[in-house]
């Protein structure tokens, strides 16, 4: 099975999102430890942890946004492919192509004349 570039990006972003979720769980454990130790609300550790939570949250939101865009692009590509390869559209497109019958008839006639001329030339060459 072969995967395209969008699918590869989708897998990579999903893995990144999983890592950010694990990081979030670790931050939650750190917060629980700080609560157990009765740390002051204005302590530097708590403020630093708050900043880490915010950063983690922002990164998760950005990853989800990128995943959504990739999925929408993939769906759009699938839709276009289905429209392009739809069997009913294949026949419609052929009918829509204008064919100038005069020109095609002339080309066929000229080709037949060329074939006959070649045959006549070969016969002349054989008798001369």
Structure description:
- By secondary structure, the protein is mainly α.
- The chain has two domains: 5-97; 101-128.
- It is built from four helices and no strands.
- Helix 1 packs antiparallel against helix 2 (44-85).
- The longest helix has 42 residues, at 44-85.
- The mean pLDDT is 78.
Pick out its properties:
single chain; 128 residues; mainly alpha; 2 domains
Principal-axis shape: rod-shaped
Helical residue percent band: over 70%
Series of secondary-structure elements, N-terminal to C-terminal: HHHH
Low-confidence stretches: none
What is the count of DSSP helices, taking H or I runs of 4+ residues?
A: 4
Short note summarizing the structure:
By secondary structure, the protein is mostly helical.
Explain the layout of strands and helices.
Layout: H1 5-36, H2 44-85, H3 87-96, H4 101-127
Helix pairs in contact: 1-2
